[in-house]
Amino acid sequence: MTEKVLDFDSAVKVYKKPGFFKSRPSPALNGVSFSIEKAEIVGLLGLNGAGKTTIIKLVCGLIKANGGNIKIFGKSPDDLEVKGRIGYLPELPYFYPYLSPADALLYYGRLSGLSPETVKTAIPSILRKVGLEKHTNRRCAEFSKGMLQRLGIAQALLHNPEFLVMDEPVSGLDPIAIKDIRDLIISLNSEGKTIFLSSHSISELEKVCGRVIILSGGRIHSVVQREKWSDSGKSLEEIFVAAVTPDLN
């Protein structure tokens, strides 16, 4: 039986928006259910405001659901053991500009509770894995956005997580940097890592994902298998546009 890495079961999230006299509810997710199995690459696709960021925050334990259940490796996202098995790449990873890549990883590793010895031992192989081994003596201020994105992935890999959550990993990158990140994602998956990608780049999701979850208005509209866009003659873009067109009217 394949291991479930992530399981959303009728998850609900309602934010509170300020009003003149009292706050008013603002639903973000309404009964969202899906699961991700070990060693999959699964994409999350939706218009702005569809609920993608809310799902990412719930997975990372940054916010709590108002209803339903969310399990990661069969446990709550708040579980410390679970947190140690997840690596997270934010959309805009930040590193102090005066630090070198190794110093930046040492800093974030210690913030995550890793010992300096553990981080120092891991740094050379991780920088090699993300293609930054030739830039160890440069400062982050000299890095391009693509190089910073690779360093962000290195930060997410420091503790050798089994499950990687990536928020817009190729946003704003040039074509060469996009290919580098795509190849890295495929390589990490070939090592057995499970990867969950939120992205607006339909073409990149099409290239790397086995399944794509289409989110619309805080609900799962559909979960699209690779075969549907690779064998049917319809592109993922066509499938997505048809799915969300009612939301545009």
Question: What do you see in this structure?
Answer:
- This protein has 249 residues and is α/β, with parallel strands linked by helices.
- It has 2 domains: 1-85 and 163-248, P-loop containing nucleotide triphosphate hydrolases (Rossmann fold, 3-Layer(aba) Sandwich), CATH 3.40.50; 91-160.
- 37% of the residues lie in helices and 27% in strands.
- The protein has helices spanning 52-59, 80-83, 101-111, 116-129, 145-157, 175-190, 202-208, 226-230, 236-248; strands at 4-17, 24-37, 41-46, 67-72, 86-89, 163-167, 194-198, 211-216, 219-225.
- The strands form 2 sheets. Strands 5-6-7-3-8-9 form a 6-stranded mixed β-sheet, sandwiched between helices. Strands 2-1-4 form a 3-stranded antiparallel β-sheet, with helices on one face.
- A hairpin with a 2-residue loop joins strand 8 and strand 9.
- The protein starts with a strand and ends with a helix.
Provide the descriptors you would attach to this structure in a database record.
249 residues, alpha/beta, Rossmann fold, six-stranded mixed beta sheet, 9 helices, 27% strand
Secondary structure: elements and pairs:
Elements: E1 4-17, E2 24-37, E3 41-46, H1 52-59, E4 67-72, H2 80-83, E5 86-89, H3 101-111, H4 116-129, H5 145-157, E6 163-167, H6 175-190, E7 194-198, H7 202-208, E8 211-216, E9 219-225, H8 226-230, H9 236-248
Parallel strand pairs: 3-7, 3-8, 5-6, 6-7
Antiparallel strand pairs: 1-2, 1-4, 8-9
Number of domains: 2
Write down the overall geometry.
Answer: globular
| CA-atom Rg in angstroms | 19 Å
CATH-scheme architecture of the largest domain: 3-Layer(aba) Sandwich
